[in-house]
């Protein structure tokens, strides 16, 4: 009988490898090689590759295996544009529904980020940035919105790390989180929506700048 838990673990392992850049765009992934690396049979590997093709992360070539497509720059822009709309909505819903427990979690995350930003601890700040967004998703009270946004957030992990490696952007981001928190506590849904949308737009602007710098260095 097929082990759905094993299939999911293998899928996540390959997906993480693609999204982290371990498997770069154009890399060929054969069932045999992935099976060897992961230490599992080819059946769950085949299921994982088929699922990854459905999600557009690889292209399956008959008798050859899978070619990594990854997240392109066009995909990245699309994801951020989706986040602008959906995260604004999540923040607006959170402003109307958040509990005292949600407020405590959000406040603690922002205060810790303010503590670590002065110390330039990039790893801690990346974790806290994720924690803040996840806390807003949870506070929205929408399971579907939370799942969708968490998936989008996961897909751009490498790009978020690049953006948050910029000390100036990190300081801006933490300050923006504080402003969003204040709007949420005030139960101002419109302001929370506007500030959150602007926060994601600024993150995209910073990423485009980073991409352009990287492209210019390659020329």
What about the largest sheet? 3 strands, antiparallel
Strand content: under 5%
The side-by-side strand order for the widest beta sheet comes to 1-3-2
How far the N terminus sits from the C terminus, by CA atoms, comes to 52 Å
Give the overall silhouette.
globular
Task: Provide the CATH topology of the largest domain.
Answer: Four Helix Bundle (Hemerythrin (Met), subunit A)
* Average pLDDT for all residues: 91
Instruction: Please bin the fraction of helical residues.
Output: over 70%
Poorly predicted ranges: none
Assigned CATH class of the largest domain: Mainly Alpha
* Continuous helix count: 10
CATH architecture classification name of the largest domain: Up-down Bundle
- Structural class determined from secondary elements: mainly alpha
CATH superfamily of the largest domain: GntR ligand-binding domain-like
- Total beta strands: 3
Radius of gyration: 19 Å
Number of domains: 2
Give the ordered list of helices and strands.
HEHHEEHHHHHHH
Descriptive report:
- The model has no long low-confidence stretch (mean pLDDT 91).
- α4 packs parallel to α9, α6 runs antiparallel to α7 (143-155) and α6 packs parallel to α9.
- The chain has two domains: 4-68, Winged helix-like DNA-binding domain superfamily/Winged helix DNA-binding domain (Arc Repressor Mutant, subunit A), CATH 1.10.10; 73-218, Up-down Bundle (Four Helix Bundle (Hemerythrin (Met), subunit A)).
- It is globular.
- The protein is mainly alpha-helical and 219 residues long.
- The longest helix has 30 residues, at 189-218.
- The chain has a three-stranded antiparallel β-sheet with strand order 1-3-2.
- It starts with a helix and ends with a helix.
- A hairpin with a 3-residue loop joins β2 (58-61) and β3 (65-68).
- It has helices at 4-20, 31-38, 42-54, 73-97, 100-117, 122-139, 143-155, 157-164, 167-185, 189-218; strands at 28-29, 58-61, 65-68.
- Helix content is 77%, strand content 5%.
